[in-house]
Amino acid sequence: MLIKTSASGFIHPVSSEITPQGIYRSRRELIKLMAGGAAGAALASWAGREALAQTVAKPGKLAALAGARSAVAGAVTMEKITDYKDASSYNNFYEFGTDKSDPARNAHTLKTTPWTVEVEGLVKKPAKYTLEDLLKLSAQEERIYRLRCVEGWSMVIPWVGYSLAELINKVEPLGNARYIEFITQADPKTMPYVGSRVLDWPYVEALRLDEAMHPLTLLAFGMYGEVLPNQNGAPVRLVVPWKYGFKSGKSIVKIRFTDREPKTAWNKAAANEYGFYSNVNPNVDHPRWSQATERRIGEDGLFAKKRKTLMFNGYEAQVGQLYAGMDLKKYY
Ligand SMILES: Nc1nc2c(c(=O)[nH]1)N[C@H]1C(S)=C(S)[C@@H](COP(=O)(O)O)O[C@H]1N2
Ligand SMILES: [Mo]
Known about the structure:
The protein contains nine helices and 15 strands. It is of the alpha+beta class. It has one domain (20-30, 40-323): Oxidoreductase, molybdopterin-binding domain (Sulfite Oxidase, Chain A, domain 2, Alpha-Beta Complex), CATH 3.90.420.10. Strands 3, 6, 7, 10, 11, 12, 14 and 15 form an eight-stranded mixed β-sheet that branches. Strands 5-4-13-8-9 form a five-stranded mixed β-sheet. Strand 1 and strand 2 (9-11) form a beta hairpin. Helix 1 (21-34) packs antiparallel against helix 2 (38-53). Bound molecules: the ligand Nc1nc2c(c(=O)[nH]1)N[C@H]1C(S)=C(S)[C@@H](COP(=O)(O)O)O[C@H]1N2 and molybdenum atom (MO).
């Protein structure tokens, strides 16, 4: 069940009324870890301290974009934050090449100013927002989210932005709006691989309206206290933490409200491998590989153990209800 609040759209009636979110989250996880016995307890207190002590180191190269700690349930994880260097040099951004190291090398040509995002389709108030308008639309929050790629790697990143719901509420979706399409920049002059045949450009992603309205769905402008590096989707991207990474479109230029489920870039490229929902799900394998475990970037030493992938990437308490009654093998 969702509760409507005046300030920030919908929230789940779990915990936020009871204790501050960060405390709630870590307490719950501590209890879970402690169930593992003494070793678990030792690990828990270490991890708990680690999480509280984690102040995001500012990498100091890009313009600052700080945000207050978010109060959204699930926005804080006590896991170790991935090094900025790893998060900004191991990327998927096919407009700049298909190799993980290509975006960091090539994305300097992306032109992020001026930037506008057009909001159109089934809304009462269609609008063209400059990046500056968007930045002013709501307060910036820092949210530490896991991001897990369908390829089996994951990171933990302190993003900066605000819930997409803030923008959605401003444009007032019409009663028949059920989906939102996110259309990203496709400029062959500044993006060398736009035009290549890997994907049908522009890269398009989409969410059901209730998924897009969920407070965890983040419109992100920054990470690690700074504006986004080009290779991570500057100047504005989505982060949908319970879905495989490809659902989080980078360098968004258009947001379109529709009444029908849109075709998305990866779905068009290989429908049997990439469904519309693409919720992180250890129980539903990709047709060519298992999704049961993942490799945390930065932990890839010879002896590093793979991590178990969690249902909805660990955000089940927050988002599970969105899919109640759905066969997740069918709606993958
Ligand atoms: N426009 C665009 N957005 C994109 C992609 C892309 O190729 N083009 N790749 C997606 C994939 S597969 C992943 S895993 C994430 C990676 O985000 P990161 O580089 O910030 O980790 O971005 C997603 N968004
Ligand atoms: Mo991905």
